[in-house]
Write a structure and sequence with these properties.
Distance between the termini: 31 Å
Structural class: alpha/beta
Strand order of the largest sheet: 2-1-3-4-5
Radius of gyration: 15 Å
Strand content: 15-25%
Helix content: 40-55%
Length: 164
Amino acid sequence: MFPPDLIARAALLIARYRAAGLMAATAESCTGGLIAGLLTEIPGSSDMLERSFVVYSNAAKQELLGVPPETLVNHGAVSEETARAMAEGALANSRAEVAVSVTGIAGPDGGTAAKPVGLVHFGCARRGKPTMAREERFGAIGRDQVRVASVRVALELLEAAAGR
């Protein structure tokens, strides 16, 4: 289901988190649980993955993660502000030390000139540290490819957060 290189990276990430005594949570919109799905492909992932939130709708982002309605109204679901709020909300609503969030436009529809297909925002929060944000513009490379590319970036953020 996942490319072998992603499986290998996920296994290394889980081992790293396990060694550091860290737990992670995910808050996923356009990836629809793929990050958690990848992590749970690895036996023993329960040592590292505390929980996952799939929050596709704005209502779910608000209800499960506490994303402020004004953030969604003023900046939209696909924005740095929403990605940050999602990551912080995942931390606030879990026992994890690190949370990664993803919100974007995987396509093939839904893009605009300002927010084209392939635009994805990421957040990564670690308790006691500033929340990080990242924007990627993958382009109209296809829905599946945008989602897998987003999983790759989320793994990078989780790897970096382990060292912060």
